[in-house]
């Protein structure tokens, strides 16, 4: 009977997601978007509360101790655990600190239904998050990422270079955020090649052959920020090699922490990428293993945007109240595609600021924001930050 109820909840959620897939990913103004995704987040909270004991304990312990955050009371005053009648807006959705994924195995489906286990980034000495994905969750991740990226690239698959090594694909059962990102993004490419060999050395011959074949076509590049800087840009500069691609698009993600330690600003990164690769549109992508699929893309104006499938809430660090537009604080990320584990509302260790709502010059609707960096004393994370040769 419980399994039937869970299937019913997932079917309701899936039906609402299908409606979002029919819309352009940045078309909804904020008020309308919240009207659509808040009920989905409420359904997800209910689903995970009843199917993940650890999540239930966290929600009961944290939120029932906060004034005005009694999520288990119905409007008539009767206690009905897990109904979450008080979730009326995005800011009402209970959140859990991202670090808890390192401490607990948080999943809301039977382990035998898990088809992939994604591990977060981290050095060998760090405890890593484990993200449990079933077929439904994995499919929604892929569909959401495709929907978002297609709005930038179009529907055609492009000749592609992955600025990484093919060795990243060797373990497909338990794979890292870096490997998951590479595999997921490779779906947008046609016959993708890897620019680095198994020793993390730049394969100049492969890159030259790709250039000769596709220099006049629209092509796609993907990689992790620090690795592009360390193993592509700097190596090409040292060897005094330049490619003049006529129409390239680069999506990069993660690794700004190390670039900042080298005093490399985003603008300088873009300029030097273009200097060695040619006419390249550069898009920075923000996301995390705990919400893979619901990525945030930096637009042409330099602003990060949530799609229709996700949103960001800024909370004041002193009391976790919701900050105003223009006020910095901790970033809470919400996403509507996490059905196999309670990752739909996460308090990150990153600081950010909402810059505006519905009025970005790029034309995309909803909130737009800026990431200000990791909070002090938070552990170093990032898909490429932790790579060591």
Short description:
By secondary structure, the chain is α/β, with parallel strands linked by helices.
Provide a count of the helices: 10
On the 0 to 100 scale, the average pLDDT is 86
Please give the share of residues in helix: 25-40%
The main pleated sheet reads as: 7 strands, mixed
What is the terminal-to-terminal distance?
52 Å
Report the portion of residues in β strands. Answer: 15-25%
The number of distinct structural domains comes to 2
Radius of gyration: 21 Å
Structural class: alpha/beta
What does the overall shape look like? globular
Oligomer: single chain
Q: What descriptors fit this protein?
A:
single chain, 389 residues, alpha/beta, Rossmann fold, 2 domains, 5-stranded mixed beta sheet, 10 helices, 15 strands
